[in-house]
Amino acid sequence: MPAKDILLIGAPVDSGKARRGCLMGPDAYRTAGLGEQLADLGLSVRDLGNVTPAAPGAPAPDMPPHVHAPAETAAWTAALAEAAERAAAQGLPIFLGGDHSLSLGSVAGMANHAAAQGRPQFVLWLDAHSDIHTPQSTASGNLHGTPIGYVTGRAGFHGFPPVANPVPQGNICMIGLRSVDGAERETLAGTGIRTHDMREIDERGIARPLNEFLDDVARAGGMLHVSLDVDFLDPGFAPAVGTTVPGGATIREAHLVMEMICDSGLMTSLDLVELNPFLDERGRTAQVMVDLAASALGRRVFDRVTRAYS
Q1: Active site residues per annotation
Q2: I need a labelling partner for 131 at 20 to 30 A (CA). Which of 8, 13, 15, 229 fits?
Q3: Domain that residue 107 falls in
Q4: What is the pTM of this model?
Q5: Which stretches of 187-281 are assigned E, i.e. beta strand?
Q6: Does 310 reside within a domain?
């Protein structure tokens, strides 16, 4: 269980893709009782409110024209990187998203803090997608598919803040992959990023690859950023996401991951991303994500209270 304060940071980012709705995510997490549930675990919780980016300028001239809202996402990236670095000095920040483009800023900011502490930054990416595109390689033009590309220092992010402390590829572990396009597969094959798709999870279980990664983080004395996308979960359990991909993690697997993270004591920051309350069913997905965050911070399955959604 973390000794530091838990800092809730709203990141109502909705510019990383064309489909609207993720801007409501931070309020949905608050309404689902995230702060109260963490406080019930004996943690000190402070809600810092929502980050507000500067007004976006014009897109950089070298930015491909099909990219959706690049200047707005760049403004969010700068604001969130600054907020992350500032909050990391005070406690354990939880970024309440917002689409996954928020991680361009949250991860970059946490990596800056880790560098200032003389410690390596590690990232656990719990997602159906690898999100390693650049603005040039993405066919959709949606920047929520680019955060890993950005924080590892790939070129092409014209108009975005320079990445001062790229995360080493070998310090990134992706679990839950099941929707990776050809360009991403080719890119990943040439990196040191650890990738574990759902077939491997079915064959080996989810605990073994996670344990191997956590052991490496511990040996390196690293700081661990966990980025949890709603679509890591099977949409049967978590429907409130615009990028539903069947065959995701079960509730049992997801809670095991979170409890193992808690047991390790390594997590120093957390993203909760891609919740679109407009697509939810009576708040079910928001509650699942809140439950998972609580598991990552000390609650055990035995402690869970049965809820009805009727």
Answers
A1: 100, 127, 129, 131, 144, 229, 231, 274
A2: 8
A3: 5-303
A4: 0.95
A5: 194-197, 223-229, 267-273
A6: no
